[in-house]
Design goal:
It contains twelve helices and 17 strands. The protein has a twelve-stranded antiparallel barrel, surrounded by four helices. It is globular, with a radius of gyration of 33 Å.
């Protein structure tokens, strides 16, 4: 982070607070003064109570209603000449007019302007390397620049050079540290500025999800201790680059579960397939959902009467062509083990899971990729209550991914990225439900709703094609540090001189984002059970939904040219 020398922004903000306080006390004083002068003018008529040009409007026509129209206002204390809409009397009108009370909006606007400049000054300080000494007084003296008011790359080198030359050093610092990605493509800027902007922009560009919505459902059948089930989910996401993603997920599972005397133990094997389409606009993403619904309806119609089947077969190819091929395909195999113990009114539980996934992406048609992903999940929980329940829980998920160039089949030379992801999700909610029936048969139902707070840290380490970097990546992937899944190492400090090549690559090239989300989730679960000759059978159906939105996003800035240290920078 850049530093300020001999300057304290906190004291400047304190000044803004004092201005607000003073402004609030001016108007009552102004009203009282207006009333006194009006009364004096009436007592002294036809003489004037004052010859002051600032007080003159009060005593010219005291008490005259101005219920319509307005009264002229002179330029006082920086307030421009204009007309106020007509209050009932001049005395009331002048409470916002040419007397000292009119300074109220001026002071408030000044305080707001000071805060805005302090905000911008703090943004620049956090984005600039720690070894850079910033001229805080110069930054505070200029208005915050419009970060989007940058010449287009095709504006011409002379025009771009003239624009840059016309900026003050403080204005240049705002563009360089807060919007480097808008400068790196501008030919006409000094070479050192272009080089610095390119480096800063490289670390800032880390794609992430800004919001998502998901609906899901599923069914499960049980026979004794055996369980089988299937489900689906439809997820819509908006990304930080302005694109929209729609993902359709289908899953199957089989497992074992036993529940005796309040102790529940279970294990499940899962298979999941997901297809993701990517769009440039929300309307295109919404249309895909309609097309998927129509395709499902047409597929169902094929099994009905002859006329419906003929119509469906004619219509279905058109809809499928419009849907097109997904950009990302994911196949996942996983296992899950869970246990819970009922202890009176409390039920603590724990769940462990692990998955292996293959992700095929054609986002870049010229360089399609295949990603192998492995992750683990730990989910402790605590439920209090029997019918009305309070639920507390957390989900900690760690993922290691290796991205390979699909066009290159050689596993010794095709690694393009090593990615580490940690997700920590806190859950807090409530549930209402119960069960009817006896030992032989019964029905149950539960509805729960809750809030989530999620924090996601992603570390992308690009790997070059040269043999040294490929070997360093393979070595790290073959024996990653034991804590790499639980908490990926953020390369914020310069590695030791004897550090391995992968650690140096993570520090010098690693793109890191830290994004926080707030969300909500709900689930409705209905079940039935019955016993035949001592063998229990069961059926369960679920329907749920969840959504979240980003509330904070940061990226790990470029290494400081002097210390090598990297700091998290808020995204503007």
């Amino acid at each position: 982070m850049g530093g300020f020398q001999g300057f304290d922004p906190a004291r400047v903000r304190e000044l803004a607070g004092h201005l607000d306080s003073v402004a609030g006390s001016m108007v009552p004083m102004h009203r009282q003064l207006s009333q006194i002068l009006e009364s004096a003018a009436a007592d002294m008529a036809p003489q004037k109570a004052s010859t002051s040009p600032e007080l003159q409007p009060l005593v010219d026509n005291p008490g005259v209603p101005v219920a319509t129209g307005g009264i002229p206002i002179s330029s006082v204390y920086g307030i421009p000449t204009g007309y106020l809409p007509g209050p009932r009397t001049q005395g009331e009108a002048l409470a916002g007019g040419p007397l000292p009370g009119s300074v109220d909006p001026f002071l408030r606007q000044t305080a707001a302007d000071i805060r805005a400049r302090c905000d911008r000054l703090e943004q620049v300080r956090k984005a600039a390397p720690a070894s850079v000494t910033l001229d805080a007084a110069a930054l505070l003296a200029v208005e915050p620049v419009d970060l989007n008011a940058v010449p287009k790359p095709n504006a011409g080198e002379q025009a771009i050079a003239k624009w840059w030359a016309g900026l003050t050093p403080a204005q240049r610092e705002q563009y360089l540290y807060l919007k480097p990605e808008s400068l790196e493509t501008l030919k006409g800027l000094p070479a050192d500025v272009l080089q610095r902007a390119t480096q800063l922009a490289y670390f800032k560009v880390v794609p992430y999800k800004t919001s998502s919505q998901e609906s899901s459902g599923g069914t499960k059948l049980s026979l004794g201790i055996f369980e089988i089930g299937e489900g689906f989910a439809l997820r819509k996401e908006q990304m930080s680059d302005g694109t929209y993603r729609v993902t359709l997920i289908a899953n199957d599972q089989a497992g074992l579960k036993t529940d005796k005397k309040g102790v529940s133990i279970g294990g499940t094997v899962k298979w999941e397939v997901g297809d993701t389409w990517v769009f440039k606009s929300k309307s295109e993403a919404d249309q895909l959902q309609k097309d998927l619904d129509e395709a499902f309806m047409l597929h169902t119609e094929q099994n009905r009467n002859l006329a419906g089947a003929v119509w469906a077969k004619l219509r279905l190819p058109t809809v499928l062509e419009r849907i097109g091929q997904p950009k990302i395909k994911v196949t996942t195999a996983g296992v899950e083990v869970n246990a819970s113990i009922g202890a009176g009114n409390l039920t603590p539980g724990i769940k462990f899971g692990g998955n292996l996934s293959t992700i095929t992406s054609t986002m870049d048609p010229q360089r399609p990729s295949v990603t192998q992903s492995r992750d683990f999940t730990v989910e402790p929980s605590l439920v209090r209550g029997k019918i009305v329940k309070a639920e507390f829980g957390a989900v900690v998920n760690g993922t290691i991914q290796v991205v390979r160039d699909k066009n290159n089949p050689d596993p010794n030379t095709n690694i393009t990225t090593v990615r580490l992801i940690q997700t920590v999700e806190g859950k807090l909610g409530g549930a209402f439900g119960g069960e009817l029936g006896g030992e032989k048969a019964g029905a149950s139902g539960t509805y729960k709703e809750g809030r989530t707070n999620t924090h996601v840290v992603t570390v992308n380490v690009p790997i070059g094609a040269n043999p040294e970097e490929q070997a360093a990546a393979r070595k790290w992937l073959n024996a990653p540090p034991p804590a790499a899944l639980a908490s990926p190492v953020v390369p914020s400090r310069a590695p030791a001189p004897d550090a391995d090549l992968f650690a140096r690559l993570a520090h010098n090239r690693g793109q890191v984002s830290a994004v926080s989300y707030k969300g909500k989730a709900s689930e409705l679960k209905l079940g039935a059970r019955f016993t035949v000759e001592g063998i229990p059978f069961g059926f369960e159906a679920t329907a749920g939904g969840k959504s979240d939105r980003v509330v904070d996003q940061q990226y790990l800035g470029a290494p400081d040219p002097v210390t090598g240290k990297r700091n998290f920078v808020p995204l503007n």
